[in-house]
């Protein structure tokens, strides 16, 4: 691939050209030159006046359904949705069938050609079948390329098992990701416990289920790291899908104490509150559930002050048969890959630079992926976007359509991605 | 006659005060009808109604069926046991199949909160909620309000205590909405594990002492306690429940005031109510059942006008 990109604004806090409009010459999958008024004969030229470019975006939490539930999402469709959402690298949760708990499933994903312009990073399960009982062969899976360890949709309930997982992963400097949820407190829960769950007669998922488990997980981490000889400059525990104000406060205090942790929030948490579920819309049924306005404001504050490191889609594809049902029979989840950027622009209250940081620099650092910057000689792993564009989300590339945003007017549009020596451009 | 503001009866939450008064006033007329030698009117002669019950019910289904027949509607009954639901058919498919046979109205009981709301946005027929899980049971609340009004007159300022398992009760929530819209004061009373944490935000009093609740109220609406159907334990035993939350005749007599005792049925005799209380002069439990038919006639009649 040889390509000359003209007049694109660089969004990269580390680059001396940050905020400047530049031309970028790409050759053999690398940035060959950055400058003004570059020209070159007989190569493809793309004028991107008005658009921005940043390092390719990373989504740390994507539910793929391949293998096992390919009718909901396969590796091709999840990659297409990711690329259209601007993501050149995605972390796939292990909740497939079979679960990613052995090398064969891990390699099936890693060796798939489906990704194309998108690099697929499978995370491996902590426990077999992600059932929370028996350990997977984590050293082996780590060496086979598992980017992180997590039981994905399931929070690890056993304190002993979580403690041992932290200890076992330490010599590898491998990342553990866990969603804090005390399963007994959230048992049969359908939505946030509050006045709306009371009005709709639904069993609630109390904020306490997150707060308690988060406190426990951090205690276990602290205990595991006492007298540890291993380096903790990288996060050891990544907390997935924070949803409560107290949760944000717990993470903030733990970080101030110096615990090696990181955390993320699903972008849709910034859009909806529990009161939006008053009409039983199953497309708004997610876990953790949409909570109160105060929780949402605390999440925004947490993003702004750096308590929350990353923004994720928590892409969770469900077919119509799993969603067009009575509320308590419907599955949890929203397909989010294609709308992360727009929703962040519209609802996060963050500057463009900070949004980009939360989906590039931060997740790469947490995942121990090499830093990507826009400079001469760097790998061409880039996302092109227009933060001002108004557009209608008319077509989803995911196999599942369980998103409340389909057909909606959004702001901020991805225009193209370059990665793995491939390029894609969107209207 | 005045019209309702809604096409479906999904819950009391969706009705305004005027709707409720209209239903209760219409029910008064229908109560006259069912006490005549010829208990029938031709109002819904050209209407077909399906009673679709995905959960067991004797009283409510019978009450609806009688209401429909006394309005001269054609009636079909569907219940989940032995039906296609067990073969994995979706709710929407089941109901659309029934509607394909030219049915105009669906009366549905379902275990999922919001199931009638889900249906109402997807089918052309009128939907009447005959109880959706732990959410609402609007016709029960309407017949309860009708029965209270019959006994006490205007409910403005009257004090109603709802006693028992509030968390799992669709009757409680519908009663709260209905009574508040009619200007009554509501208290809920029961073990603290059986009262939703956020219920107080609806402006109801919360109590845990049955004696105090009885002293406070004009009407005690006692709910059924079911230990066996709860997947999560909320209290230790029926014995302890009946000892500390059960109501007997002595307690009512000791009050030295008029009190109205209600229960939506079926009663667990000896658990939430002793037999002597249930059968006492305080009780209007069988009047509630009688009024249920008149209230349901009113609901069906008014919805058919929409």
From TrEMBL, chain A:
GO MF annotations in UniProt: dihydroorotase activity
Pfam families assigned to the protein according to its UniProt record, in alphabetical order: Amidohydro_1, DHOase
InterPro entries tied to this protein: Amidohydro-rel (IPR006680), DHOase (IPR004722), DHOase/Allantoinase_Hydrolase (IPR050138), DHOase_cat (IPR024403), Metal-dep_hydrolase_composite (IPR011059), Metal_Hydrolase (IPR032466)
Domain Dihydroorotase catalytic: 55-222
EC main group: hydrolase
Assigned keywords, A-Z: Hydrolase, Pyrimidine biosynthesis
Record EC number: 3.5.2.3
Domain of life, per lineage: Bacteria
Gene3D superfamilies per record: Metal-dependent hydrolases, Urease, subunit C, domain 1
Record-annotated Amidohydrolase-related domain positions: 276-422
Keyword check for ATP-binding: no
UniProt keyword Hydrolase present: yes
Protein name as catalogued: Dihydroorotase
Protein's organism: Dyadobacter linearis
Automatic annotation (TrEMBL), chain B:
Domain Aspartate/ornithine carbamoyltransferase Asp/Orn-binding per the UniProt entry, residue ranges: 156-303
Positions of L-aspartate binding: 87, 170, 224
Pathway in which the depicted protein is active: Pyrimidine metabolism; UMP biosynthesis via de novo pathway; (S)-dihydroorotate from bicarbonate: step 2/3
EC number: 2.1.3.2
Segments traversing the membrane: none
UniProt keywords, alphabetically: Pyrimidine biosynthesis, Transferase
Record protein name field: Aspartate carbamoyltransferase
Organism in which the protein naturally occurs: Dyadobacter linearis
